[in-house]
Write a structure and sequence with these properties.
The protein has about 170 residues and is of the alpha+beta class. It is built from 6 helices and 5 strands; from the N terminus they run H-E-H-E-H-E-H-E-E-H-H. Strands 2-3-1-4-5 form a 5-stranded antiparallel β-sheet, sandwiched between helices. Helix 1 crosses helix 3. The radius of gyration is 25 Å and the shape is elongated.
Length: about 170
Amino acid sequence: MKKEDKNKIVDEIATAIKEYENFYLTDISSLNAERTSTLRRECFKEDIRLMVVKNTLLRKAFDRLDENYDEMNSLLKGNTAIMFSDVANAPAKLIDKYKAKKIPALKGAYVQESFFIGAEFLPQLVTIKSKAEVVGDIIALLQSPAKNVISALQSGGNTIHGVLQTLSER
């Protein structure tokens, strides 16, 4: 491979890392062509970008970025595929779906500015919420007391009106 081609690939990887907030390093080496195609289709359905990379090129892409990804360098052995996603837990759910087959095997992940090294973090990654989900939960919690007060006032108003109307009729 020519040096110019390698530089293009490194730039493409670095751009993808900047573009997506979350990425997972996996090993899909034991998949045959048919199963790899199936995995790619499922990734596409879940809006996950799957990219098979050479470890040296991924390491160079990490070096070109402003953030420090040194913790991921220990995972760059064997075959490596990267799953990019804007939704923090989407790749983890897909990996969890196939955990009985252990393919794709999770090596590590960079999710919401945190490193998760090793497959033992998969259960935590599956349950992690995205920023949008957390904001939605907070808004729901903030709205709940207001809804209760409004509901109580409305039902209390109807009760008082009913009592006054009954008294006026007597």
